[in-house]
Amino acid sequence: MKLIGSPNSPYVRKVRIVMAEKKLDFQFVIEDVWAADAAVSADNPLGKVPRLLIEGHELPLHDSRVIVEYLDTLSPVGKLLPASGRERADVKTWEALADGLLDAGVLARLEATWAGRSESERSQAWIDRQMGKVQASLQAMSKTLGDKPFCCGTHLTLADIATGCALHWLDFRFPQVNWRDDHPNLAKLADKLALRASFSETKPG
Question: Which residue ranges does UniProt annotate as crossing the membrane (predicted)?
Answer without folding.
Answer: none
